[in-house]
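1st attempt posting a full record on here, be nice pls
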Amino acid sequence: MYPADVTKTSPPATASGKKVFLSDADLDKMAMLLVGNQQRFRENIIIPRILGPVQIKSIDEKRVERAMESCVFKSIMSCVIGYGLGAAIGLFSSSVNPNMTSVEQQQSAREIFREMKTTTLSYAKNFAVVGCLFSAIECTIESYRGKTDWKNSTYAGGLTGGLIGLRAGIKAGILGAAGFAAFSTVIDYYMIHRS
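the predicted structure (as C-alpha cells):
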C-alpha cells in the first residue's frame, strides 16, 4: 500500500466534500512563480544577437538617458545652441553690412567693434529665445500627444510664431503663426523624407 506520509499531503477537501487538486494558497504561490520575480530591474534577460553583441544599459545609463530626453534639458540645449548660432550669424551679418549712416565720418575701430557686438548679441538673444520656446513647446506637445510625427513641429511652429508675432499685434501674430508653422512643416518633411 501507500507510505504513511502520503496521507499528510493529500489534497484538501472543500466544504461540499469534493477533493481539489490545489488549495488557494498553493495557487497563489504558483502564480507568483509563473508571473516572474518581483524585482524592478531584471538583469538576466536573454536578448538574441542580431548585429553584434547586445549590452543591457545600466541603471546610471538609463538615468542619464532619461535626463537628456527631458523637456527641460532639450529646451536649455536649444537655448545654448541658438545663442551660439545667432552670435555667429550676427557676427557675419555685422561684418558684411557696415553702418551706412556715418559714411561721411570716419569711424574708429572701437565704434565698429561696439556696433558688431551690439548686432551679435541681438541676434544671439533672438535665436536663443526662439530655439528655447520652440523646443519647449514641441516637447510639451509631443509628451501630451504621445506621438512623434510631423504634427508636433507644425503645432509648435504655429504657437511659437504666434507668440513671437503677438508683440506686433494680432495680425502679425496670425501671420507669424502661419509662416512659422509652414516653415516647420516643410523643414520636418524635408528632414524626415529626404534622409
